[in-house]
Amino acid sequence: MMRITSLNSMSLAKVLSLMYLCFAIIFSPLILFTVSMDGIGLTESIFVTVFLIVFYGIAGAIAGFLIGTIYNIVAKQVGGIEIDT
What we know:
The chain is mostly helical. The chain has one domain (about 5-85). It is about 75% helix and about 5% strand. The chain has 3 helices and 2 strands. It has helices at about 10-25, 30-35, 40-80, and strands at about 1-5, 80-85. It has a two-stranded antiparallel sheet with strand order 1-2.
């Protein structure tokens, strides 16, 4: 039995940032379609879509760092997560 007692917060931030970025890119046509339904121009729709893709990547990095930091604090008190091998 193994126990995860700490996580590298920066590593988790990088992984979640890339995951959120990939999801945003996958769903970008839907985002572009939804934004363009508001009646704004194509240029503004593309700008909003690119902004949301970048925002999701940054939000993933921040979330990953916070999750890793909070997990490390809680794992010190509780003992971490046990994994069967």
